[in-house]
């Protein structure tokens, strides 16, 4: 009994000692903190317009007026949907229809040069339009399965354009020879805009292919491919159209009436992940691989660069594609048609300097592409890269071979996005859902 | 001589008595059941979520722990067997079937799994491994177990007190260091990274709108700090214990709500049950049966099992190691949040928001230069983790060096362009861009190829407010 009491006393004394120690340490910490930098002086907050739903908290964001919190995020999402995503889909639907019409004319006169030129121009317009949507793979356009699954994904993208999946040109020629139907069961490596480019921009099938369809057969297949693309374009548009599937409302009412997005942050996360297209595809595949600085084994068909990786080598549209990708990235930040963009979210938390920095970097990228395109063009510039080391140095120093400088400029912009901007807005990066954290 | 030795002997005897005092086994038995059940659930969750594919099968490269390079990721079949084995062994020690074998098996398999890739390191996985290790030496299967049911001679209603104290120490040291890791300017003065993490959660009901306010972030930062450094003290104080436990429940409910930290809150809640009186399960059962908490049958006092000197020394060494390991970052210049030297195994939980970018520049012997993206070897999860951890950047550089040397391009030189944003600060280089990583050895020494930490404070982000156009 005495022993038990003694032990109990020991435990209690130990507990008191430990507790006292903790309290002491807490007090010490209260007085001892503060090393390593003072407070940041916040930049002036833009004066909000009077009386627009503010809750008058008088806190850190100003003194009333404007939208706050999730209402602000939803407002940005709505503007992005209505001003950027929906118009991009509408435009592609229109361009796809124009392409259908042009290919119908071509089928009627398969050897008519004017008809062929018109079809090619229609294809280039459709491709240019689609390149905006390449960066907007949110909702139905996105994937429905992991690892790149997106909320509301219905896999529309690959039916329109399957790059960087390599085209099976011989299978495509076989399909043309056999008048194969083009539908949802058609393999993505013989359909979509890439397949149309191959048939429109090559006069004859590759010699290595066993099947050698005639020009008429090839153009008829172009029409089937264009028809299918038009159907997919319209279906995708209908998913978003407020009068039909109304994904605009799912997107814009995230965390409110949306049944797919539990919070506006989820929609912003989806957008953030989609924006990484500019890093992973535009920068790494379209530029780093082609210029050869991506070190894809250090052996390419050219002495230094690797033009075999160009995105649209037959139509010489690779540079235009990159410009469109970057332009829509910029539009998402700045907003268009006087609507809001992601920059408004940054300015709304007093991080406007990040918005300014990114837009300046993107402008440099666009200027660089325009310079390249106004010269020999991106594709030719890639073929002319003579020294891989010079290219790497140009990318690192932002001076030298223009097409390599372009790589460095996009790197700078994406570093700003991937680093402080993703942090500041708490945005997601691709494939960030696996596993736990702590 | 007697006059000198007597106090020491007396102290030894008291210590021995204190450590070997018989205590009701039920609390530790319940601990075993809860821990095993949770681990079984966790392993099945890991499998069913497809994380074996995402984290171990998809990546072509895995990061090793220093000294554990021999741990390799098995093939898909081996991985499923490994995680299946974790689930089965956890279930077995939960029900107390072949306890000693099952807990040792669990510890080995779980620890092996955790050592397979550094980018998957989590503090609560480390804690799980330590708890399992401790349980290998304890005897919670003497009651409420299949073993005790099958072997009457095994049955016991008490265990020596040191078994409880050892677990308490481990739980206490965790909370203690989790709290003190927050004793730094970013957390306490600038409320970072909560200032970044909480606003996107403003859609949560009731509490959500408050999460936009910077003063709330500061309150949460200080509360979390004070909670972590004091809660064990309150749990040791009998009168405060129920209230402290209630606070723990609330605190971890919110950590579960706010962050994607999986089973961590559950583990942290169940862990502190060890601070309740040893007979709490019996009293709870009695309360449920008879409606009174005072009618619990006291188990018969069994004989004292002496604590062997060897085991006592081993446990003392273990405790010293656990107490000192989290302090090792003081041996390195700079701040651990930046250089990460001493970050792991130190209970530095949810302390930093790091984001950035990395590319390597490869210089071949022939004078060629190439840019190599880590994405060639890693998936996005690995990339996100490694981009802020210099030792992993070095490790991948060595892998690339070996690959290109083997291809005949070498000896190659490798430089890293690693830009990092810490807690929302502007990007700045984390690795000396002139340091040839191919020539630098890994290890525990001071890494002068890591740049100095940022000297500016993190930015303060205000409440989101925009002017509708």
Structural class estimated from helices and strands of chain B: alpha+beta
Order of helices and strands of chain A: HEHHHHHHHHHHHHHHH
Distance between the termini of chain A: 46 Å
Q: Give helix and strand order of chain B, one letter per element, not per position.
A: HEHHHHHHEHHHHHHHHHEEHHEEE
Question: What does this protein look like?
Answer:
- The complex is a heterodimer of chains A (438) and B (469).
- Chain A has 438 residues and is an all-alpha fold.
- In chain A, 60% of the residues lie in helices and 0% in strands.
- Chain A contains 16 helices and one strand.
- Chain A has helices at residues 2-32, 69-108, 113-134, 156-160, 169-177, 192-201, 215-240, 247-252, 264-275, 277-291, 318-334, 342-348, 352-374, 378-383, 388-397, 402-425; one strand spanning 67-68.
- The two termini of chain A are 46 Å apart.
- In chain B, helix 5 (99-114) runs antiparallel to helix 6 (123-135).
- Chain B has 469 residues and is an alpha+beta fold.
- In chain B, a hairpin with a 5-residue loop joins strand 5 and strand 6 (428-429).
- In chain B, the strands form two sheets. A four-stranded antiparallel sheet of chain B has the order 4-3-5-6. Chain B has a two-stranded antiparallel ribbon with strand order 1-2.
- At the A-B interface, helix 1, strand 1, helix 2, helix 9 and helix 10 of A face helix 1, helix 3, helix 9, helix 11 and strand 3 of B.
- Strand 1 (67-68) of chain A pairs antiparallel with strand 7 of chain B, so a sheet runs across the interface.
């Amino acid at each position: 009994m005495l022993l038990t009491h003694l032990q109990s006393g020991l435990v209690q004394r130990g507990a008191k000692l430990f507790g006292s120690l903790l309290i002491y340490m807490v007090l010490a910490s209260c007085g001892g903190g503060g090393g390593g930098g003072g407070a940041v002086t916040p930049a002036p907050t833009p004066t909000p317009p009077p009386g627009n739903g503010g809750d008058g908290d008088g806190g850190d964001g100003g003194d009333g007026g404007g939208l706050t919190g999730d209402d602000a995020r939803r407002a940005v999402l709505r503007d992005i949907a209505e001003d950027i995503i929906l118009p991009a889909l509408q435009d592609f639907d229109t361009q796809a229809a124009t392409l259908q019409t042009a290919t119908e004319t071509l089928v009627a006169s398969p050897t008519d040069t004017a008809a062929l030129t018109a079809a090619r121009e229609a294809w280039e317009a459709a491709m240019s339009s689609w390149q905006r949507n390449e960066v907007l793979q949110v909702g139905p356009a996105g994937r429905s399965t992991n690892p790149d699954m997106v909320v509301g994904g219905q896999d529309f993208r690959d039916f329109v354009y399957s790059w960087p999946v390599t085209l099976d040109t011989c299978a495509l020629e076989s399909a043309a020879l056999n008048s194969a139907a083009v539908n949802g069961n058609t393999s993505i490596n013989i359909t979509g805009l890439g397949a149309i480019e191959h048939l429109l921009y090559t006069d004859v099938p590759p010699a290595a292919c066993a099947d050698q369809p005639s020009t008429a057969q090839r153009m008829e297949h172009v029409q089937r491919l264009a028809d299918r693309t038009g159907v997919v374009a319209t279906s995708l548009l209908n998913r978003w159209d407020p009068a039909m599937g109304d994904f605009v409302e799912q997107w814009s009412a995230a965390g409110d009436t949306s049944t797919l997005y539990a919070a506006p942050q989820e929609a912003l996360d989806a957008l953030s992940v989609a924006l990484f297209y500019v890093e992973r595809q535009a920068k790494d595949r379209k530029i780093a691989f082609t210029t050869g600085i991506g070190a894809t084994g250090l052996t390419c068909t050219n002495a230094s660069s690797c033009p075999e990786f160009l995105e649209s080598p037959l139509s010489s549209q690779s540079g235009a594609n990159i410009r469109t990708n970057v332009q829509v990235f910029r539009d998402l930040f700045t907003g268009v048609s006087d609507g809001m963009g992601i920059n408004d979210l940054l300015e709304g938390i007093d991080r406007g300097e990040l918005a300014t920095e990114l837009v300046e970097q993107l402008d440099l990228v666009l200027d660089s592409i325009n310079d390249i395109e106004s010269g020999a063009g991106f594709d030719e510039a890639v073929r002319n890269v003579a020294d891989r080391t010079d290219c790497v140095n140009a990318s690192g120093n932002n001076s030298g071979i223009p097409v390599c400088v372009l790589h460095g400029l996009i790197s700078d912009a994406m570093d700003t996005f991937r680093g402080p901007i993703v942090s500041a807005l708490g945005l997601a990066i691709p494939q960030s859902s696996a596993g736990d954290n702590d | 001589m007697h006059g000198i030795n007597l106090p020491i002997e007396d102290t030894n005897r008291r210590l021995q008595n204190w450590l070997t005092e018989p205590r009701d086994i039920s609390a530790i038995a319940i601990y075993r059941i809860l821990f095993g059940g949770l681990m079984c659930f966790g392993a099945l969750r890991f499998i069913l979520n497809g994380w074996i594919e995402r984290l171990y099968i998809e990546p072509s490269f895995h990061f090793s722990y220093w000294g554990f390079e021999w741990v390799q990721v098995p093939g898909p079949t081996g991985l499923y067997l490994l995680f299946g084995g974790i689930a089965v062994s956890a279930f077995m020690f939960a029900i107390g079937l072949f306890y000693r074998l099952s807990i040792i098996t669990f510890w080995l398999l779980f620890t092996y799994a955790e050592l397979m890739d550094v980018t998957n390191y989590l503090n609560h996985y480390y804690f799980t491994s330590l708890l399992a290790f401790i349980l290998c030496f304890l005897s919670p299967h003497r009651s409420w177990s299949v073993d005790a049911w099958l072997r009457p001679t095994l049955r016991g209603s008490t265990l020596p007190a040191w078994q409880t104290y050892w677990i308490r120490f481990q739980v206490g040291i965790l909370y203690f260091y989790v709290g003190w890791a927050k004793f730094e300017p970013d957390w306490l003065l600038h409320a970072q990274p909560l200032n970044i993490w909480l606003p996107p959660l403003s859609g949560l009901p009731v509490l959500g709108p408050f999460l936009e306010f910077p003063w709330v972030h500061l309150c949460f930062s200080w509360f979390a700090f004070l909670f972590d450094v004091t809660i064990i003290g309150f749990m040791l104080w009998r009168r405060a214990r129920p209230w402290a436990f209630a606070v723990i429940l609330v605190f971890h409910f919110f950590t579960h709500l706010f962050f994607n930290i999986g089973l961590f809150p559950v583990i942290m809640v169940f862990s502190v049950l060890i601070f309740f009186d040893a007979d709490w399960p019996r009293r709870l059962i009695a309360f449920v049966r008879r409606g009174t908490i005072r009618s619990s049958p006291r188990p018969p006092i069994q004989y004292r099992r002496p604590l062997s000197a060897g085991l006592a020394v081993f446990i003392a060494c273990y405790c010293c190691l656990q107490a000192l390991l989290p302090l090792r970052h003081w041996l390195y210049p700079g701040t651990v949040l930046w250089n990460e030297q001493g970050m792991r195994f130190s209970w530095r939980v949810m302390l930093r928001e790091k984001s950035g970018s990395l590319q390597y520049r490869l210089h071949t012997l022939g004078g060629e230069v190439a840019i190599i993206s880590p994405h060639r070897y890693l998936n996005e999860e690995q990339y996100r983790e490694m981009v802020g951890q210099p030792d992993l950047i070095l490790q991948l550089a060595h892998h690339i060096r070996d690959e290109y040397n083997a291809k005949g391009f070498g000896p190659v030189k490798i430089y890293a362009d690693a830009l990092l944003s810490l807690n929302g600060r502007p990007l700045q280089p984390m690795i000396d861009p002139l340091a040839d990583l191919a020539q630098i050895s890994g290890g525990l020494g001071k890494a002068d190829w890591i740049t100095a930490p940022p000297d500016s404070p993190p930015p303060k982000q205000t409440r989101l407010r925009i002017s509708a156009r």
